Amino acid sequence: NALSNALRAAIFEALEDGDRDPEVRVMILRGAGVCFSAGYDLAGVGELPWLTAGNQGQWARHVVDGWFRVWDLAKPVIAQVHGYCLAGGTELATACDLVYVAEDAQIGYPPVRLMSPPDMQFHPWMMGMRQAMESMLTGDSLSGAEAARRGWANRAHPADQLEAEVLAVAERVAKLPPELAAINKRSVHRAMEIMGMRAAIRAGTEIQALAFQTEASSAYMSRFRRDGESVSKLLSERDSAFGDYRERETAPPKD
Fold it and tell me: CA-CA 20 to 30 A from 39: which of 85, 91, 116, 189?
């Protein structure tokens, strides 16, 4: 479930259609197959699906604009996370209102190791300063169980029970009148915004753009475009020193 721009555009279209549909009271976003999402499609994401001001930082500004489009929907959106949830996948899940994860899911942002900090820098807001710092300085993943304890997810469940548990929550949310659910949702978001969350995440796009100008990031990213090396090889090179992700497929999740 690599997040190409075409897939992202389809996700936004589906969610916005649901937001307009009077028969829909809550939406669930989940990944088909073995994982929620391994992140952005580094092999070629395609044209941006909507206009964002160009020049340095355009990509980060663009994706943050998209995730806030999800944040600003009237109806609640639930992320159901299993398997890998990495990089842009974590941003997509974070944009949702409720997040439920499989206990053995792996949630992480490995691009901090050789590329840049996140496009959407949610970590201090969702997990606190200490865990945010550890995540930014290691790129290590958290298990679903640990992510729930750190506050990124609402709850973690055994993988074979996750879908049933998410549906049970969705049914409870759907009992609220839609107009009241929208106001209740907005009240939480407004409190976070008054504390500076939206402004901080937008400011983070400029820091992310600066990171791409560093020698280490420029050298690494140039090889995606110039040397023709496979994405798989470059990602393995990134993670080999740490012995995780694709370099340790059978490793137990961090917990």
Answer: 189
